[in-house]
Amino acid sequence: MAGEILDNRGRGDASWNWPSIHPEGRKFGIIALAISLFFLLIMDWEIVGWPLLGLTAFVFAFFRDPERVVPQGDDVIVAPADGLVSLIAQVEPPRELVGDDGLGSAGLTPLPVTRVSIFMSVFDVHINRAPISGTVKRLIYMPGKFMNADLDKASEENERQHILIERHDGLLIGFTQIAGLVARRIVPFVKPGDILAAGQRVGLIRFGSRVDVYLPTGTDSAVLLGQKVVAGETVLARIGTQKLIEGVAQ
């Protein structure tokens, strides 16, 4: 299915498949499996082996990497992460993404923009994806704390990684991968200079975390606070569209 065109008139071929396990997680799953089999088959300690076998299944599930059908369109910004929209606020972008980088590459303006925060629980897919197509202009890692990623101040105090993507027409989108209470490592799949397609995999955060997206000036969120979004599939915003959207929790 990867790379295949599908549309709303039935073009393409879709079928359900077991999601693959990302290579980054296979080693953890194999280690957990080996330990659980050791206790089950060698030590005959079922009281330890069976829970460890359950943990093995969880590890493999955590690193699942399903295919996604990415909406296409010049005005579309897709969600970079699976999870819950936990915060929507008007804020100034991180200083690491603002202004010239010293090498002649422009960054975001320091004016307040809409920030959409997506909280990923340990049960969500943790592969993060590019919100737009373009070139990676900055990738900046920042050490920090490991507070609850659901807190607003996690954007400035937690361990995090900023990514800035420039579209072919010069439009810039910045987003930040933020570690949380359990997360202890942010793993990038890209580097500055890489050319990405919208929805392309850019990295992962191990075991629960958050992603902040800084929308362009004049663009409001197309998702609601409390909504569940899907990386690479949910339309997070449409560039240049400002519209109040309301929903009812029920």
In short:
The chain has 250 residues and is an alpha+beta fold. The chain contains three helices and 15 strands.
Structural account:
By secondary structure, this protein is α+β, with helices and mostly antiparallel strands. The chain folds into 2 domains: 70 residues; 163 residues, Glucose Permease (Domain IIA). 16% of the residues lie in helices and 29% in strands. The strands form 4 sheets. It has an 8-stranded antiparallel β-sheet. Strands 6-12-10 form a 3-stranded antiparallel β-sheet, with no helix packed on it. It is globular and about 65 Å long.
What is the total domain count? Answer: 2
CATH class of the largest domain, please?
Mainly Beta
- CATH T-level fold name of the largest domain: Glucose Permease (Domain IIA)
* C-alpha termini separation: 35 Å
Order of helices and strands: EHHEEEEEEHEEEEEEEE
Subunit structure: Heterodimer of a large membrane-associated beta subunit and a small pyruvoyl-containing alpha subunit.
Membrane topology: Peripheral membrane protein
Active site: 209
GO molecular function: phosphatidylserine decarboxylase activity
